[in-house]
Design a protein that fits this description.
about 230 residues; alpha/beta; Nucleotidyltransferase, domain 5; five-stranded mixed sheet; 8 helices; about 50% helix; about 15% strand; globular
Length: about 230
């Protein structure tokens, strides 16, 4: 069954809106106005529902095309406001700045660090880390030790704490937050998590960090159409 079945709008319009929202970091209202200029009348709330429904699907379908990642991981967390409170966005990239994984959490303790690293290891099972660089948060050594004791992480993996080596991910935090700013904050953890996953995966595609990705916007559109089996 098509995931677009019973939708009032064509799949091409839905994919365009989800791709533009996750790519450019604009508000739902602004995107609705942009579509109106193209002769398509859509409410901001409809676009919101599309993002919540199809951004996770987008991420799931892109993952097999993610390709090689370096074994040198850079892990850090940044703040995101959700429902008027600061939450923690755990993120990992390799030494070239290519996304490995991200996870929104209400806490920054050992259990949260453990869950994030476990998820990252599952996502990158074909490209395990040889080293993990973090800040000096005490949760990371405990989480890494637990993963090693459980056999989920090699005992040979080096854990380093270096602010200099983590400059690449700290700079990437800033680029991501520039996309988050027009949203004017999130109201719920669930919707925030989905939206952030959409931002992350679209940034990965836009920067050419995917296999089977031809250069430029036409290549990006071609990849999205290929992922959803859609022929415009």
């Amino acid at each position: 069954m098509s995931i677009f079945k019973r939708r009032r709008f064509p799949a091409a319009i839905i994919l365009l809106c989800v791709r533009w929202y996750c790519k450019y970091g604009i508000s739902y209202r602004d995107l609705a106005e942009m579509m109106c200029e193209r002769g398509v009348s859509i409410s901001p709330s409809t676009i919101f529902r599309w993002v919540q429904r199809y951004a996770p699907e987008f991420e799931k379908r892109v993952r097999p095309y993610q390709g090689h990642r370096s074994g040198s991981w850079r892990v850090d967390e940044t703040y995101v406001r959700v429902g008027g409170r600061w939450r923690y966005l755990f993120r990992a990239v390799d030494k070239h700045g290519r996304l490995i994984a991200s996870m929104l959490s209400g806490r920054r303790d050992t259990n949260a660090a453990y869950r994030f690293l476990r998820n990252a290891l599952r996502a990158m099972s074909d490209y395990p880390p040889s080293s993990i660089t973090t800040d000096k948060l005490a949760s990371y050594p405990k989480a890494i030790g637990r993963l090693q004791n459980e056999g989920l992480l090699s005992k040979d993996v080096k854990h380093r704490t270096s602010k200099y080596l983590n400059n690449i991910i700290e700079a990437d935090h800033g680029a991501l937050k520039r996309m988050i700013r027009p949203t004017r904050g999130f109201q719920r953890m669930k919707t925030a998590s989905v939206t952030l996953r959409g931002f992350e995966v679209m940034r990965m595609v836009r920067r050419g960090h995917c296999m089977a990705r031809h250069a430029g916007v036409p290549g990006e559109i071609r990849l999205v159409n290929q992922l959803f089996g859609f022929t415009p």
